[in-house]
């Protein structure tokens, strides 16, 4: 089955995103992809399909959507209010979206980036091996009212599943490892950095998120001129005014500002999802500790496929109970989502 | 005193091999040649590589890989030859990119010439005949940083940013030239305009240039460039290419 998704309205930052494009760093193009990749894994677990399927990423505000065919959707990432033909539906879950029904997704309740995934995935043409919009590189563009997006053939239909989302929507402690210039900051500056509670600044997007704090800037002693070199997602750059910026999925490939540390990949979604004003603290860990933490996190992501549970509803509320197929489409818990 | 080359981890995403503290032609050539050697070595743990002006980034999963082992592999490769004296890699391309200097298409030529201590005609002569090498690609997809112009072109960036220069703009600062991929605010001075596209996202080969490629920017009339802009669909902007030996 395939069809298309009609965009009646969409928030100003909405775009199609998947896992992004690897292999083009040498040509000045960063990976891009979903700002919160865990959300795509959760959607895949709910829908019983591969996490490589493209979804719609919504920033703070949802939209109104309709499908040309009966399909199943999953709602993950930042929690938003949602309804189908006026009936409220729960977030972090999969739902039937009958042909012609209006799916309305409102404002964000918790977090920043919400995701609408569809069985079979959004099947727009691939550009350089991915469907992701990369705003900085000018690949793809924001979703526009009236636009239709093709849907891929769905291999499973799994409405009525729920997943417990990992807690990543309110800031918190972020683990970092030393970066290329960390040792050029004074020990006092590094200590003060680790003791400061930052607030996510309103200045934040898919390129980077600024951290605000009631303290002096974090400068390198004696100034520093760094020859432009590679920068990566997760790096914490300290710009001219001394404020740290956490670089996100659409950052540039090279830069000249000193970097005080690098966020662990598994904590990056927490930075992306922190709402404006949410508290964030950065805690240095050694590379060995970071490796252990990351191995554990990857195992949790692999296990997500087996963690989607049927939504518990009162059977009296389900008019078409007998049509539900609650056991089909289970996917292997041993499937490695990192395999390429 | 730090000695080079040095190897450092970049978060958990890879290793950075740095050949010098500052930009220099030998260090840039070392980075270019060393990156080519890492690519040729085809180690299974290396996912991709890139270079900036004087360093090479080797992407590997530092969560699952043995980091000291990968560092010693890189050290072994570093020890094989004097990378600062390595020849340029084979298979490079020389591009001849038609360029309009000055006029309203590139309004900062006269200002840049004055900073370079020459009259505008001499500036055009120097800019259009100096063979520039792609030192690195970055900032925007496919965007080349090219070196190196004569000493008199060691001109600083302007203090205020120009709000935006168009895609294809040829800009100058610190003995380097850049052709912009997309409309960009910049502190570099807009001395020429080309119709060359660095990034062609729907083409089989989306990126026109590779580090190590060389470019010349011969002068053409405003009318010639406008004709090219009106008719060129390839993205080459009328540029001719030849393979360097």
Automatic annotation (TrEMBL), chain B:
It comes from the Bacteria. SMART domains: AHS1 (SM00796). This is Allophanate hydrolase subunit 1. InterPro entries: CT_C_D (IPR003833), Cyclophilin-like_dom_sf (IPR029000), PxpB (IPR010016). The keyword Transmembrane does not apply. It comes from Roseobacter litoralis (strain ATCC 49566 / DSM 6996 / JCM 21268 / NBRC 15278 / OCh 149). The keyword ATP-binding applies. One of its GO terms (molecular function) is hydrolase activity. Keywords: ATP-binding, Hydrolase, Nucleotide-binding. Residues 5-209 form the Carboxyltransferase domain.
